[in-house]
Amino acid sequence: MANQQNPQTNCPEIKEPSPKIQKIHQNDVSQESTNGNFPLLKVKKFSEKTILPSKGSVLSAGYDISSTTETKVPARGKALIPTDLSIAILEGTYARVASRSGLAWKHSIDVGAGVIDADYRGPVGVILFNHSDVDFEVKIGDRIAQLIIEKTMTPEVVEVDDLDLTVRGSGGFGSTGV
């Protein structure tokens, strides 16, 4: 980072380095990054319109993913939006496709069916639901969702005759706090 003095405030101005995404070949890396600290999120592009997933800030939990087509999500309807990319993530994780808060708040746009398993290598599509009464226009390059990498836990399934008792028991659907 370069620090320069801002003449108006007499405070140092901090400039973030521009993110550079390096293209690697299949045999160049294992499941670790080049510095050995963090796993890689491997991404394959299918078209020139594909935008690589990117973080909005250093501490963002998710990577923004973008549309590669112009389409309309009809009012009270849904649409499958292509991203023209596929991903490879670590075993023991999955990628969750989640809503972007700005789209949810400003346009009532939500994401559905958002689980990408670690062994899936096909194209990533994003199902957008439009909960508003107005059609929603999607342009090429629009950030439409975010990709969050999460750990999975898949315990062995064991059939039992009974389950342990809890204070809550079988109460559900609004039964707590009543």
Automatic annotation (TrEMBL):
UniProt GO BP: dUMP biosynthetic process; dUTP catabolic process
UniProtKB keywords: Hydrolase, Magnesium, Metal-binding, Nucleotide metabolism
InterPro entries in alphabetical order: dUTPase, dUTPase-like, dUTPase-like_sf, dUTPase_trimeric
The reaction(s) this protein catalyses: dUTP + H2O = dUMP + diphosphate + H(+)
GO molecular function: dUTP diphosphatase activity; magnesium ion binding
A UniProt-annotated Pfam family: dUTPase
Needed co-factor(s): Mg(2+)
Record field: compositional bias (Polar residues): 1-11
Residue span, dUTPase-like domain: 50-177
EC assignment: 3.6.1.23
Family assignment from sequence similarity: Belongs to the dUTPase family.
Record's protein name: Deoxyuridine 5'-triphosphate nucleotidohydrolase
